[in-house]
């Protein structure tokens, strides 16, 4: 199928992003990929943000991951909004949650939720058996909530302004110089080397930082400055590099 029908526009960039950002999965771990459509990018669709579909990555094989992303990237004339209108390609974004989820935790959460849901449905006055059609939604919700480990912090710069970005990066470098470099922790985790990746997104930049004590302290102090157009993302969801986000091809921002 022509790449005109796909969100994936630069597979080599996508491959490079995957290999740099995704840590190898262990045991019961998986990653989540989410395809969304946003009114922000296409005012004609009916809702502000709609999760169109989602899937899990259960392999460490880059080629298998790329095949899954290629499949999810095919969107032209396939999805409709709540009004039944076809969602145009410029509305879509493909996101990755780069922190693994535990399927064992998710299974435990799912079983508890379903047992409670089933009991309430059985003893209630109104029997709504159609709820059971949504078991897949309940399962995916449980997977989403069941984080296995926390690898990253993400700073979302919500303005396409290199001066603002460089100001943040300079604060990171300055922080390294001003800290007590004699501490063993500072030697192990200098802040500037904790920048794992920077993406240029549709509306700005995502700075992906390795999560450790030093970066945690920096995030806390930096966010207390209330810098305009900069947000700390509690949900570490980031657009996939090499793919369209609202018509813009997300790319690596190289220092």
Account of the protein in words:
The chain has 255 residues and is of the alpha+beta class. The protein has 3 domains: 3-101, no CATH class; 104-143, no CATH class; 152-235. It is 35% helix and 24% strand. It is built from 7 helices and 11 strands. The protein has helices at 11-21, 62-73, 103-123, 135-145, 162-178, 184-188, 213-223, and strands at residues 29-38, 49-57, 92-102, 152-157, 195-200, 205-210, 230-233, 238-239, 244-245, 248-249, 251-252. It has a 5-stranded antiparallel beta sheet with strand order 7-4-6-5-11, sandwiched between helices. Strand 9 (244-245) and strand 10 form a beta hairpin. Helix 3 (103-123) packs across helix 4. The chain is globular, with a radius of gyration of 20 Å. Mean pLDDT is 88; it is low at 184-188.
- How much helix, percentage-wise, in residues? 25-40%
How many distinct helices?
Answer: 7
Strand order of the largest sheet: 7-4-6-5-11
Could you tell me the radius of gyration in angstroms?
Answer: 20 Å
Low-confidence stretches: 184-188
Summing up helix and strand content along with how strands pair, one would put the structural category as alpha+beta
Global morphology: globular
Number of self-contained structural domains: 3
Biggest sheet statistics: 5 strands, antiparallel
């Amino acid at each position: 199928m022509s790449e005109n029908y796909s969100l994936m526009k630069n597979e080599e960039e996508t491959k490079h992003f995957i290999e740099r950002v995704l840590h190898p999965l262990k045991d019961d771990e998986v990653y989540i990929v989410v395809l969304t459509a946003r009114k922000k990018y296409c005012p004609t669709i009916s809702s502000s943000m709609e999760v169109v579909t989602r899937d899990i990555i259960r392999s460490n094989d880059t080629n298998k991951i790329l095949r899954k992303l290629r499949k999810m990237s095919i969107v032209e004339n396939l999805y409709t909004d709540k009004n039944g209108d076809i969602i145009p390609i410029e509305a879509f974004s493909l996101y990755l949650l780069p922190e693994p989820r535990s399927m064992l935790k998710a299974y435990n959460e799912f079983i508890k939720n379903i047992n409670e849901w089933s009991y309430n449905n059985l003893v209630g006055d109104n029997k709504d058996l159609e709820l059971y059609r949504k078991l897949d939604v309940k399962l995916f919700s449980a997977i989403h909530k069941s984080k296995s480990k926390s690898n990253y912090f993400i700073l979302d710069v919500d303005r396409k302004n290199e001066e603002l970005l460089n100001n943040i990066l300079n604060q990171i470098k300055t922080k390294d110089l001003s800290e007590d470099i004699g501490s063993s922790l500072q030697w192990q985790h200098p802040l500037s080397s904790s920048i794992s990746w920077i993406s240029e997104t549709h509306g700005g930049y995502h700075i992906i930082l390795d999560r450790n004590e030093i970066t945690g302290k920096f995030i806390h102090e930096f966010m207390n400055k209330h810098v305009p157009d900069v947000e700390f993302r509690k949900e570490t969801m980031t657009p996939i590099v090499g793919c369209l986000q609202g018509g813009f091809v997300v790319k690596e921002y190289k220092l």
